[in-house]
Write a structure and sequence with these properties.
Elements lengths: L4 H20 L2 E3 L4 E3 L2 H31 L5 H21 L3 H27 L1 H35 L7
Antiparallel strand pairs: 1-2
Length: 168
Amino acid sequence: MKLDTKKLSLYALFIALTCVGTLVVRIPFPLTKGYLNLGDAVLLAAALTLGRTGGLLAGGLGSFLADLLTGYVYAPVTLVVKGLEGFICGIIFERIPTTAGRIIAVAVGAVVMATGYFIFEIILVGLYPAALSYLANLGQGAAGAALAYILSLALERGLRSMNVLPSK
């Protein structure tokens, strides 16, 4: 795999944007000591715009850094769960590069995120709080997916016009 400067710069940019999107808007979810944020929108947009590698890096590292900076206990789980969310979203859209594929990719990514945290939270806090958190994570994922859909269209258009992404 040849990694050029433009791609490396975009990966770094989306890692930072995911971290900031996670930190800027934080709505606490007291039952599991988690929080809702906008990081999913950025990492899913990265996956749609840059593919599986961009989704993996933005999701895993950007979200992990946000958790580390805030001392959040979920940081190691976040690295895996958010990385998978971005990676799977990216793979789906690479294989189905259509409007329907874009919708399916962000929806599946959101479900992967909610399910990953649900599995961990069953162990950490028990089934009932984990189930409530699952619903909150699905809501966050749905909002992030909708925003990512819109954001990715604008990003692709802008990055293509600046010759940062190849033309279709």
